[in-house]
Each structure stands twice: as structure tokens, then as C-alpha cells.
Amino acid sequence: MSMTPPGTTAPGTYGTSGAPGSVPSGSPDGTGASAAERPRGLLRSGFGLIGPRHGRHVLSVEQVDSLALPIGDDGVVIGVDAGGQPAVLGLNRPTPYDVVLIGGLWTAQVLALRAAATGARVAVETGRAQAWMQMVHAMGGGQNGMSVHDVGRVPPQGASAGNPVLVVRDCGMRPPRGRVVAGPWQSILTLLPYLSPVAPRLLRQARLVGVQRVSPDEAAEIGRALALPRGDVESLPTLTDGVTLWCADRDRQYVMTQPTDAETGLFGTPRRMD
Description:
8-stranded mixed sheet; disordered N terminus; 22% helix; 10 strands; alpha/beta
């Protein structure tokens, strides 16, 4: 990094008369001083360190936007997109967040495990507790923030910014209205193996919908409910195991969920059917 040689002062830096936070040209007591003495005088008067004095360290107003940093890209890595880049789902939010997944148990369990790995507590409401117990045991018997409850028996979770919660509702094709609903720092993931009469209501309420391989008739109905383009509707019956089309408002993204070795040991390879 180049520095201006001692004894010089770049325009607009300390020592320039009239600049904000500057002192009159000369010594701190206002008397005349040589250029070499001015930086030392500034330090003695408490105006800060002598930093780089080169034009390339100065930004114009138009260039300030280039300093923007990415914010809001934290969350659960649910797979990779079509370009091979990580696809991140922000489940821990200060506002209610409902997610519906029309797909397989395998994907729901991977999402739950990864959410727990980010520090969220996971409460599973299910009619098939045995399908989740291996995961609970692997996480320490429920001591690491995961619990399994019968349908309709999920207690209040006490979610907060420091203690976010994900409630997974694995209640079959016709899940009843849940006692625990989405709220600040508490997201709800509802798993539907297929479409059912309650699906349109859930899709309307959801902020995010994930769709895995479905039949052509189901794809047509989902396409109407989500206003999907014809190409997406035609692709849904052909999706391979582990691929999900995630839809939020008008945004759509295909994501391939690739298991880690530990996830393969727990859940096996990706599959749509349970």
C-alpha cells in the first residue's frame, strides 16, 4: 500500500483549511509551521492517525453503493440450484413463516436435521413417531433440541430470537388445523405426501411451497394454484428423487438436495416415496 511521503498533504485531508474536522494551516496553536511539522501537530492535537493520502483511497458518491455487503443470505442450505450454487432457506424469521412441502419424508427429515444444526429447536407433530425416532436418538435422545409429539399434542414452544423454532407437521394428506401456528421466530413446515382437499387452503396460506415429483393431474392442479408456467407444470411429473421446485410469490427455483455421509447413514439415499 503506497503512502504519501512525509511532508506532503493531499487535497481534502487533514491540514486543509476549511475541511471538516481540520485545523487552520499551521501548527496547533495557529502559528505558521512547515509542511513536515503539520502531521505531527495534528497527532498532538488529537485529530487522529495519519492515514493513507492517495487518491485511490477516496470514493465518489456514485461509488459508495459498491461497498454494499450481502445481508439476509443466512439460513439452512437445502441443496444446490441449477447453477451449482448453494440454495439457502431462511427459516428463522421475526415474522410468521409457513412452508408447505408436497413431497417425501426423506426431504422433510433432511430439512429438519439441518435446521437443528443451525441452532433451531425442532418440534415434530406426527402420526408415525417411529419414522422420526432414529433421528431423535441420533441427536442425543431429544436433549439437543428435537422433540416428537402426537398429532394435536404440540405444546407452546416459547420461540424467541435467541431460541428459534421449526415445527414440522407430518400429519398425512389431511392435516388438522394445528394448535401451534407460525409466529415470530417460529416457522411451520407442513408435509403433504400428495394433494388432498385441504391442499388448496394450505397453498394459499403458505409463504413458500416446495413440490417434488407428482402425477400429471396433480401437476396441473398445482400449476393452477401457484400460477406456474406451462414448462414447470410439465416438468413436475419428471423430477428425479431429491429435486424440489420451490415457489415463493413469482420466484421459482429448482433445488437438488444432496445428502452428507451422516444424512445418508440416517435416512438413506434421496427418495420421493416412503
